[in-house]
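User: Before I run my own analysis I want an independent prediction to cross-check against. Here's the chain; please return only the C-alpha cells and, at the end, one sentence I can use as a sanity check.
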Amino acid sequence: HLYALGHRRIGFVGGNGALQPIRMRFDGYQAALAELKLKLRKERVVLAHAGGPDRRSIETMLSGAARPDAIFAASEDLVPDLQGIAAKLGLSVPGHVKVATIWDTPAPATADDRLPKVVVQWEKIGAEAVCMLTDAIEHERLLEKVRIPPVPNWI
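Assistant: C-alpha cells:
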C-alpha cells in the first residue's frame, strides 16, 4: 500500500523485537523491501530489544537526513508516540509522513480514520475456533490449521 502511494523511504517502528509477532512483522517488512527492490536502511528502523522503542530513537529517525516518508508501525499502540514526535518536529501525519499499522485490538472511538491499518478479525478467529473444536469433538478427529486473513483498511 505505501509503495503503491509512491513511498520509497519506508521505515519500521516496532516494540520488543524478541516477541514473535513483532519479529514476524519485521521479517515481513524486510521481505517486502527486498521484493520491491528497496534497500533496508538501519537508520529507518527502530526496533527495541526489551519493552517498546524509546522516543529518542524515533525522534532521531524522523529528524535525520534519510527520514522515511512512510512508516510501518508494528502495532497500533506505537502510533500516538509517532504522531506526537512528528508534530514536535513540525511534521504532520499523514501529510509529511504516512503511517500504516496492524490493529490488534478493537479500535477506540478516538482512532484516526486516516490511518491505513490491517485489522485483526478476533471475532472471526474465535468463531472459527469454536466451529473447529465442535467438529473435531463430534467427528473424533484432529484439528487442522486454518488461516484467517486480516482485513486491510487502506485509505
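Sanity check: Helices lie at 20-35, 55-63, 79-88, 122-139.
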